[in-house]
């Protein structure tokens, strides 16, 4: 029983690697309460054994990368709920340790990706699907820096700079990892061929093209139909491996905190994604272990 023995980047040079699915939906299926502003972060704080169980479910389904429960954990958001800075730092590190525990409990290689979710996720108002928070790049960097430092202290295999809605936040995050030697991937959330903030995707991906620390770029938390155009835009400006982990096709309604499911979900064209350069493929919201098991068997 062991975690991955080599760098994720080396594996991506050889083959497709399967990511896990949505953590929140798996926690909900396990009976966890995700109500309130802290969302899955609340489960991380109050019921860590449930987070460990969710990771293990994905690892047993064949996932080769487990994304940590740190997506919505931010110092300011947790302070509003009475958590001091040291406790929040401990939770960020815990998120990596729980994923690593699950990774070491199966008989195939599993990498741990520390989730660095967008600033908007900590606001719990759907801002991550709009971007343009009114903050300067330096302010976004100041927000993310201590989160990244806490996660790195727990030694994940890679940082997942994920669900990024605009190029300002991408610039802030890329500036934090550039020149450090820390491995990371950059994943935008997109809609209709543009970032959620409405920016050109080729320009958005070009920002990461010259950053050696970035091992892959792509999209997540989007409609499956938006994946291929985004991958093609990325491939036009970078030769880095690409990644895709969309939702199941449902649409998030932030005011009601509910999902609107598609009338008839369609199979994912994963072969087309791979032909476009995707080497990291998995699922995001409402994609569970059964889906990942099917994906593992078909890639």
UniProtKB/TrEMBL annotation:
Residues 5-299 form the Hcy-binding domain. Gene3D superfamilies: Homocysteine-binding-like domain (3.20.20.330). Its EC number is 2.1.1.10. PROSITE patterns: HCY. GO terms for molecular function: methyltransferase activity. Its cofactor is Zn(2+). Keywords: Metal-binding, Methyltransferase, Transferase, Zinc. Zn(2+) binds at residues 221, 284-285. GO terms for biological process: methylation. It holds the Pfam family S-methyl_trans. This is Homocysteine S-methyltransferase. The gene is mmuM.
